[in-house]
Amino acid sequence: MTDTSANALELHNLSVAYRVGGRNRAVLRDLSLTIHPGEAYGLVGESGCGKSTVALSVVRYLPRNGFITAGGISLAGQNVMKLDNEALRRMRAENVSMVYQDPGKALNPSIRIGRQLTEIFELRGISGQRAIDQTTAMLNRVRISDPVRVMQRYPHQLSGGMQQRVGIAMALANDPTMLILDEPTTGLDATVEAEVLDLIAKLRQELSASILFISHNLAVVSRMCDRVGVLYAGMLVEEGRTEDVFNNPRHPYTVALLRCLPRGGQRKDQIRLDTIPGFLPAPGARISGCAFADRCALADSRCHSELPPLHDLGGRLSRCHYHEKAQSLPRTTPGSITTSAVATSPEPVLRIAGLNKTYSSHGHALRAVNDVSLDLMPGQTLGLVGESGSGKTTLARLLLGLVSADAGGEIRLEGKPLASKLESRTAEQVKAMQIVFQNPDSALNRSHSIRHIMGRALRTLAGLKGSAQQKRLIDLVRSVRLTERHLSVKPRQLSGGLKQRVAIARAFAGDPRIVVCDEPTSALDVSVQAAILNLLADLQTKERVSYIFISHDLAVVRYLADQIAVLYLGRIMELGPSERVFSGPHHPYTEALLSAVPKLDETENVRVRLDGEIPSAINPPTGCVFHTRCPRKIGAVCEEQEPPLIDAEHGHKIRCHIPFEELARLQNKTDHIKEITA
Amino acid sequence: MVFLGGQVLPGNVGRAILGPLADQRAVDALNHSLGLDRPLLVQYWDWITNFIQGDMGMSYIFRAPVAPFVIDALGNSMKLALVAFVLVVPLGILGGIVAALNVNRPIDRIISLGGLSATVLPEFVTGIIFILIFGVWLDWLPIAAAWPANAGFFTQVYYLILPAMPLFLVLFGYIARMARSGMIDALDSDYTRTAVLKGLPWRTVIWRHVLRNALLPTITVIATQTGYLIGGLVVVETLFRYQGIGSLIFTAARGKDFPILEAGILTIGIVYSVATLVADILYSVLNPRIRLGTEQ
């Protein structure tokens, strides 16, 4: 059946269309690629490029309205298109496996983990105790330390990281020749993502499977893959060895994509991020020339009329007429900062002292925020970082008055005490603090036009009516780089990035002093993210507003934040000026967070890993709450005494028993540090 | 769960009784001799304590204890409901599954549209049509549901098929629609994709992975319909001259026989509560997320 010498996967001129509104809309166009045996191939591109469609075509699991219009797929020498139902089932059972995003949904909620795994072995004629033994071995293989207990559980009883391990175990149980990973770590915490990526990297050495790795995260792909293909509008625009493509791109789209990412410690007061103008062509759009031509500053009339072939540049491909000068692509957004930052006044706009929040959960006290004190200066950004469950969002909600703090703590806004309940705050105080959410879809009323949404915000927050309101509305809309024609449409007619602009404009309607940004760019593509980050930075210099910026993406936080607070189990573990926190010496937790993030620029591989999961806030560890996972624990003192938050230098505070100088010594000699965990 | 049900049940009983109690004030003026002029709360207390002890009071019309009437009628209604249930639940679910597996094909359209149209037709319309077709025209089935004395099990079922048919029509569309949407959600889910991509045979995918998750919401709907089946049968029971609890209440209401009316409605309330409780228990047994809660 399968030919072991054949390529693991070959796509020949594959075209896939979705039938929408009675018309076929092309999603993949004439796509050819080859994955060699044992190779890891990364497929990158923004959402809507057709990445997932590639994966679903290979396993022949396209949605009901999707079908292959031309071309062929061959998996280990088998023609996937010609298989009948039984042969297709056998191919799925024996040759190919898939892991995808959102492991919680990928597992059957009403079947125990063990059963979901044993049924795979039963397909291969292994049953009873032997199937259970094999399952145990498989779970051990994905580094689940207590497989017997995990097998008894239902998916909802496992954490996201554990669920994804189970997902990977299921995918590997049939010893596939081809493993498809579709955004396997998207939505997981950075530390968990690092664990899962480590696991995949290790398993690659143990198994023979070839990997198709699909991700929008370029850094993740650069860490995991030998070769990478860049997909744009369903076409392969560039392909080559990972380091070649990312370090020396030969297609303007790749060049532009890489420029959108905040890299190498870029900061808002140094440079604006580059963006990609315009939008991805809609599925099914007629493309006569180069698909990227409309958004490409290098494009000339030839690009608009003549589809470039895939030029072979010696082991790598580029679909650009002018591939040799792709890197000279001019910037879309000027990098320079127009307005220089004004010297900050010494009085903080927001001062928090001894803030606590206790929830009660099934009769237990859950301390979500524990004795948090910090200052926010006008015109500055405070970045809140930490894993999920660290209390970032609760802290933001406390400040906004959406939940009320425990008695005893104090919040002062511009010197005046701020009531912990929203109802007890004055209209001025409510106006002074606004929020931008992660998901603009749920934040904007879908049945109203943008004009209505903005008008309402101006009426309630700024008290404007009539022509004054209209004038301010136009100003506001322009300040977030929307045009007047966007006013009459409804939110669903806008893209995610445009919706987020509306949400930002709405937050700025009442001239706020502080805007809380809760993961505002997490749901957006990198090019859109860059535009939003630029916008936030520009608005800050113009309006002297302060941000409280919550994000799991440390590069994004680094770009925008002046101060960083690192939270763990509701406590501030480290607090200080952004550059000092990032350059170190760090708290061991910050160190682990930083090293968990895959980076495009760095090749060093000594990484600090965290064992296990964030402990429950109901029953936090004694002493230093981080001691259970700390790779630098020094002894009993960590288990017995909670260290104070000590000011080490110039406002850089660290909550650790290890003296600052010792931390500096330990962290500067990274080559002496052994990997702590296996 | 059982403890929780115990907590909730008195509340439901109170609610069930409040409607009839409001009418009692009018009765007060008409009839003092039955001790109805005592304070409302005292009466209620006496009545409810007696009811709990099994004493449902005396019928005004029949001058006899209420309990045997209500219990007999409830038994009869349950028989009818059971026949309707045995017919409609498997067929409704099956219809929903078939429709879901053939989404947007003709068979789906027929089941969905047909079921929906049948649901909106009132029972007395379909009942009369069925009587005309099967009872009068074809003469296959008896038109009255009152079976001869000493009739055996199968004879009773035979007499109940015709009255059960309108009920079947009302519920079929409802159950089929719930089953269909549950199935479609489950078929489109990521875990079904996982199961298919494991290479499991299609039948295993459906039986093991899809059905259980798909039918969970349907079970709740079915159980709440039990209340309707027992309590909402006034029309059908009257039409087929069947001595069920619905026609008992109807007769009592016309004759202002309040003890029977109250006892009947309270009984229906209890049946309804028990059915809901059973549905909740069943749901939590089948759904590990509720049974086990979240640990960790």
Automatic annotation (TrEMBL), chain A:
<keyword id="KW-1003">Cell membrane</keyword>
<dbReference type="GO" id="GO:0055085">
    <property type="term" value="P:transmembrane transport"/>
</dbReference>
<dbReference type="GO" id="GO:0016887">
    <property type="term" value="F:ATP hydrolysis activity"/>
</dbReference>
<dbReference type="Pfam" id="PF00005">
    <property type="entry name" value="ABC_tran"/>
</dbReference>
<feature type="domain" description="ABC transporter">
    <location>
        <begin position="350"/>
        <end position="594"/>
    </location>
</feature>
<keyword id="KW-0067">ATP-binding</keyword>
<keyword id="KW-0813">Transport</keyword>
<comment type="similarity">
    <text>Belongs to the ABC transporter superfamily.</text>
</comment>
<dbReference type="InterPro" id="IPR003439">
    <property type="entry name" value="ABC_transporter-like_ATP-bd"/>
</dbReference>
<protein>
    <submittedName>
        <fullName>ABC transporter ATP-binding protein</fullName>
    </submittedName>
</protein>
<dbReference type="GO" id="GO:0005886">
    <property type="term" value="C:plasma membrane"/>
</dbReference>
<dbReference type="InterPro" id="IPR050388">
    <property type="entry name" value="ABC_Ni/Peptide_Import"/>
</dbReference>
<dbReference type="InterPro" id="IPR017871">
    <property type="entry name" value="ABC_transporter-like_CS"/>
</dbReference>
<feature type="domain" description="ABC transporter">
    <location>
        <begin position="9"/>
        <end position="258"/>
    </location>
</feature>
<dbReference type="InterPro" id="IPR013563">
    <property type="entry name" value="Oligopep_ABC_C"/>
</dbReference>
<dbReference type="InterPro" id="IPR003593">
    <property type="entry name" value="AAA+_ATPase"/>
</dbReference>
<dbReference type="GO" id="GO:0015833">
    <property type="term" value="P:peptide transport"/>
</dbReference>
<keyword id="KW-0547">Nucleotide-binding</keyword>
<dbReference type="Pfam" id="PF08352">
    <property type="entry name" value="oligo_HPY"/>
</dbReference>
<dbReference type="GO" id="GO:0005524">
    <property type="term" value="F:ATP binding"/>
</dbReference>
<dbReference type="InterPro" id="IPR027417">
    <property type="entry name" value="P-loop_NTPase"/>
</dbReference>
<keyword id="KW-0472">Membrane</keyword>
